[in-house]
Amino acid sequence: MKPAPKTYAVKSFGCQMNVYDGDRMAELMAAQGLTQADPTEADLVVLNTCHIRERATEKVYSDIGRLRKEALRDIGRAPMIAVAGCVAQAEGAEIVRRAKVDVVVGPQAYHNLPELVARAARGESALDTDMPVDMKFGHLPARRRVPPSAFLTVQEGCDKFCTYCVVPYTRGAEVSRGWDQIVDEAKALVDAGARELTLLGQNVNAWSDDTRGLHDLIAALAEIPALARIRYTTSHPNDMTQGLIDAHGDIEKLMPFLHLPVQSGSDRVLQAMNRSHSRDSYLRILDRVRARRPDIALSGDFIVGFPGETDADFEETLSLVDAVGYAQAYSFKYSPRPGTPAATMAEQIPEAVMDERLQRLQAALNRDQAAFNAATVGRTCQLLLERPGKLPGQLIGKSPWLQSVHLVSDAAIGDLVEVTLAEAGANSMLGTLAG
Ligand code: 5AD
Ligand code: SF4
């Protein structure tokens, strides 16, 4: 038994959906009257975990051990520990057995966190990895103060079953939140200070309510007067409808940025990955988007070293990168996930080969990012100021193309200001006030 916690900390790992979930868990705890504290001092620590790559599970176990040790050293007692997120979903009761944590709660069940914490305080078992059909969102408290750029989950789960990926198992089947619920949350976020909303989903562009698609939702949100910008992530090529492509040309508040993972440039590998699109169909989608929005900044995800990937396959990935000219992209070494089909495929690729391919790919992507940034020098655009910079008077904001831009100005966080992009760095830009 542990006393009912009075303070809490939430540590989120992994994707933006986890950041969103972590924020909502924090709001839940605050609504229960708990106050936020440092993870080494809090009575309750929620570890909101990610399972997507590389020894994620082992990392959670060592995090739990370290957390306990630091708390014992600093405050003389171990906190109540709740493991949430995708490792909780995948490991379930095993975490309780192995690490003696107090609460285990999956990504579709965290609205029950207060009750689980209460149960744990009574010394009862507190594990919930259900995936109820009625989504958790209806059970979460209202939004508090939010940043200028806020996340809004509109869709969860995935039915695509790429052969390397755990998401269909940890997050469950594709579910779309209801239209009214989303619009209400968007309005509440804007009322609380958001100027930009990023609509989130594992397959966000699969959002649908039978009659309407993501582009209809974006069009409706664009009607909220104080909302200046809309983004969405992450998308699957096969759900890139003409309506959504057209929205990039028609809806001014929809920012010129598209994150569209491709994973590989080789059709053979794409097929083994069960991606259900080809190199060519992917490139054609980008052509159609560019036709509607010529200045669109493109982003993607890549995996190197998928089982059976040959040098020739990898060269095709490099040539796809050359063909696209990404503004930025993420690239990963393939990591076998227990329970996924690829984990038991023959011809797993040696680590050294993966390392070498990743280095070459990242060099190409960095080169293209630098080229993209350099090509935007001289453009005048709006900047949404999101946080203070390191230097006095410096602010950091995002350009429409999702570049981080540093600006010296007496404007306030949350302001949209007109800037000229004056200088390009490796990962950010310098801006000057326009006019
Ligand atoms: N190994 C490496 N990268 C992976 N991703 C998903 N599963 C794996 C895995 N098993 C990457 C994909 C996906 C991104 C979110 O993580 O590129 O788009
Ligand atoms: Fe994973 Fe593929 Fe679904 Fe993306 S589309 S979440 S990579 S299974």
TrEMBL record:
InterPro entries: Elp3/MiaA/NifB-like_rSAM, Methylthiotransferase, Methylthiotransferase_CS, Methylthiotransferase_N, Methylthiotransferase_N_sf, MiaB_methiolase, rSAM, rSAM_horseshoe. It is found in: Cytoplasm. One of its GO terms (molecular function) is tRNA-2-methylthio-N(6)-dimethylallyladenosine(37) synthase activity. [4Fe-4S] cluster 1 binds at residues 15, 50, 86. Residues 6-122 form the MTTase N-terminal domain. The keyword Lyase does not apply. It catalyses: N(6)-dimethylallyladenosine(37) in tRNA + (sulfur carrier)-SH + AH2 + 2 S-adenosyl-L-methionine = 2-methylsulfanyl-N(6)-dimethylallyladenosine(37) in tRNA + (sulfur carrier)-H + 5'-deoxyadenosine + L-methionine + A + S-adenosyl-L-homocysteine + 2 H(+). SUPFAM superfamilies: Radical SAM enzymes. Its cofactor is [4Fe-4S] cluster. Residues 374-435 form the TRAM domain. Keywords: 4Fe-4S, Cytoplasm, Iron, Iron-sulfur, Metal-binding, S-adenosyl-L-methionine, Transferase, tRNA processing. Its EC number is 2.8.4.3. PROSITE patterns: MTTASE_N (PS51449), MTTASE_RADICAL (PS01278), RADICAL_SAM (PS51918), TRAM (PS50926). Residues 144-371 form the Radical SAM core domain. Pfam families: Radical_SAM, UPF0004. Binds 2 [4Fe-4S] clusters. One cluster is coordinated with 3 cysteines and an exchangeable S-adenosyl-L-methionine. Catalyzes the methylthiolation of N6-(dimethylallyl)adenosine (i(6)A), leading to the formation of 2-methylthio-N6-(dimethylallyl)adenosine (ms(2)i(6)A) at position 37 in tRNAs that read codons beginning with uridine. This is tRNA-2-methylthio-N(6)-dimethylallyladenosine synthase. It comes from Sphingomonas echinoides. The gene is miaB.
